Amino acid sequence: VDAVEGYVLCHKFDQIKCQGRPLLGVISVFNDLCSLICNKRSARYLQIVAEKILEEFDIGDDFRMLVRLLPNIEMLVTSPDPIGITRSNDDAINYAIINRGDDQDEKKDNGDEVDQNHQDVNFNLSSICFLLRRFLKVVSSKSHPVMLFLDDLQFCSSSDTNSSSSSSSVVLTVMEGILADNTDIGGSSCIFFVGNYRSNEVSSSEDHSILRLVDSLKSFHVPTTTLTLDGLEIHDLNDMISDAMCTFPRICYPLSKIVHEKTKGNPFFTLAFLNSLLKDGMLEFSTRKRKWVWDLERIRNSMDITGNVLHLLAEKMSGLSESVQVALQVAACFGISMKDSVVGYLSSSGSGSCGTSATASSSFSSPIASAEFSSIRDGLDQVVKEGFMMKVVVGTSLEEFKFVHDKVREAAYSLIPENERNQYHYIIGMALHSATEWKNDMNNIIFSIADQINHGILENLPSLTDDIRNDHARLYEMAGAKAVSCSDHAAARSYASISLSLMSMDRWTSEYEPSLRRSMLLAKSACAFGDVDMAQASLREILANARCIQDKLPAFFLLVTTLIARGEFSESYSTCHDVLTTLGEQIPDSLGPKDTTNIIAATSRAVSCIISDADLLKMKEINTEGANAIKFYNLMATVSFFTKPEMFAFLVCRSVQLTMREGICNYSIVGFVHYSAMLVSGNKMVKGIRDASRIGKSAMSCWKKRFHATHTLPQLYDIYHGWIAFYTEPLQSCADALRQGFDVGMSLGETGTAFLNAIQHVAYSFWAGEKLHTILEKIDYYLELALLYKNEVAKGYLSIFRDMISTLIDRSQPARKNKLTVEGMQNASHSAAINFNGALQAFWLGYNERCHHCVGKVPKGSPVRGRIAGIGIVFIHGLNSFQILKKQNTAKVRAIPREAIATLKVAASQEAEAGRQSWNFRNKVRLLEAELQSFEKRNDEAKESYAAAITSARCSRFVHEQGLACELAGQHHKKNGDILRASGFFEQAKQCYADWGSQTKVDSINQQMESFQEIEA
């Protein structure tokens, strides 16, 4: 891979480090990829990569999140909003903690929450997967592939059936999210993943996480190959020994056969075995005979090396000096490698202690540990000379000391008696702690300190003084906060749990503030990790013990968020109700139509002064209590949409009224946009839509200029661009914004809101006339992610869309009947979506009666009617009614197209006011007018209207509606006997439908044109 200009990334897991934070190593590998690309590529190529990154990760929110996850990305792209300078390796991870806000350093020290517009969002597994997935799509290609080699996966896997919530399997969960990408939408990544594990250390059960990963990748049609690497065959081993001894293969074959029996062909075991034979005199070089000689009988009776290689290595190590053995023992406690910075701290920690015994007193009355580490660097240098370890140098700096093989580390670790190992780890941790003593640079090795102390903390807990227990609890709180900043929520959850366990039973009385901080840290990290049960348990403990409502509010908010994610809308609604009541707000249990009308009217009067974003920008900042009320009003409004829709208007209006009375905050923007969407969806009057559009646009402009809070972007884009913006912006622009809302939502881990953007993105892409094959690719991409993230609602909606698009592409191909469509459609909103898509499909297929029937089944108050789909259903219902009139020429049916024209003229007038020259709706108005004129036999007017509809659709790039206008114009001229003109319009329609990608419509036009051949004949 490296030879063909690719990138090779390697990471080795080990048993010690994987007990706490395995994910950190993987993120670090991808961070190093940025440096690798920068070092290997030309300036011109780096410029291309930078442009692609900024194109994929929109300048601003999306890019900031990528930089937070992979700080070295700034080596490839200069941030338009600088966050820091470039850095490498160790500093890259620390950068994510020390450069995230204006006052984060002080807050990190005491564990306070950092809650700023750009810094209050923490990654979870979903967001990490999605960001890395998109990053790899940009930087990898067939000409520059990425190979990722993860060694010893058995140390980061689990046989637990619930391993998705197990910290030991978090790496495999992330790898599944990255690799389960076989679509070409937006380009696909070119990555070759190699995972290595020892089969004898992995359960053969099908429930093991490694085996489940393989099965999952196969289910996503990712090509996978499983290779079993056995030992060398006897003839290969014989060739190796023959070459080493400069002896004919036939002469050394008897020796090779015995060696193979003893080592099973393992190369490392073979080398260790031959060295032991050499040491014991069973293999030697005869100077007299000038060749190697051996004692076959003694060798045959010697021990089996496969089970005793550790004994051989340990025996050799035992013969070394005491200082060298201490160096080996200490290094083994850190895993396969030991950072040089840690060596430096240990060297400065042991000036006051003596002895090397791991059985030193467990009464740690002094912060100085009981081991002597001052000469550890000299000992490690000797270890390197002995061949047990090697030095890893990056540039000119010593990076770390690394064991040459896992078995060497295990042998060094075995030098510590098993019953004393936990205590030895504890001593090392205390030595590191004493060397830093809460200094600023303690943050650099906080994980090393915490992990080492953790090994022996249970054994020493009974003898620890209150001061030391508090000291340890503070240490683990710091480690948890840093783990959150490094996006390793599995480790953060573990550190936070330990921190709480070290506190006294009456901690909520004696240590209130630390208890509040640490419990919230546990809840947030557990929630981000996916352990919702632990998160809710911690949140409920906070709610039971917090002293005031202000301290409870963050817990309430996170609790409601987790309840919504689980679909527990009733409890979510009641919780918000209780919070707002406590904050002094009065919320009725129900609201009638008259009351709803009154509160909307009162709110309209209150916001009548909002002419532009300047009016919002000059509003004062609301106090904290008011901001919290608005925050929960918005949350409650979202929940009411699913549980008590009759309360939606009241809750939205109360949020807006509170802002107008008390002041503005970033959550006020959500309230204003919600309010605008409510007005648009329930108003057919020009003034109502104009006011709603003005307020929504002003709110979005204020958000960008004053707040621009990343965590609210997905929700704002879903509401504004999905419900409001289509009156004033081209549908193509709305579709692009909704795609960005999806990307940012996934990057934040807000998968629920992200998929709402995805559903609307597909709908807008259809109405904007995007090619059907491209839309189908988008749907498959979203469906794949919905399956991965188990979003049943998205699977249901997208499956409906997919069936319709597939039918329009080629009717002869059987539609994929997905049971997910049925399973996901369990409420009225879903039912309306099914009927709407049924009407849309029937219209394009020419099933007029079915279309009329399905439209009638979409309720008047359905959310479907409040979006672009609502305008669309009016449009197709109006056109379809002319076919119904041929059989049912009633006043009710005759009124349908006139109402449709009136509705679309209102929409078109909003475009004109916005200076968009009727981009989205003018062609629809002209086509409906043309059909009405044709029905009323006003043929000259109809001719002009058809031409105007075709031209307008072409200018708006609505190729499907251009084709529709041509088709209907052809039918008009055919009906009036102008076969030549009709034929020309049908040919144009065929070309438009072909460009759209609808073979079904092309076939339909061909069938209509067959009658021309009969007339000519």
Global geometry: globular
Strand order of the largest sheet: 1-2-3
Number of strands: 8
* End-to-end C-alpha gap: 66 Å
Could you tell me the mean pLDDT?
Answer: 82
- Residue runs with pLDDT of under 50 for 5 or more positions: 79-121, 159-165, 351-371, 815-826
Report the sheet-strand fraction: under 5%
- Helices and strands: which structural class? mainly alpha
Q: Give the helix proportion (percent range).
A: 55-70%
Overall radius of gyration: 35 Å
The number of helical elements comes to 47
Described by strand count, sense and barrel closure, the largest sheet is: 3 strands, parallel
Walkthrough of the structure:
The protein is mostly helical and 1017 residues long. It contains 47 helices and 8 strands. A 3-stranded parallel beta sheet has the order 1-2-3, covered by helices on one side. A hairpin with a 4-residue loop joins β4 and β5. α2 crosses α6 and α27 packs parallel to α30. The longest helix is centred in the last third of the chain and has 23 residues. The chain is globular and about 120 Å long. About 8% of the residues have low confidence.
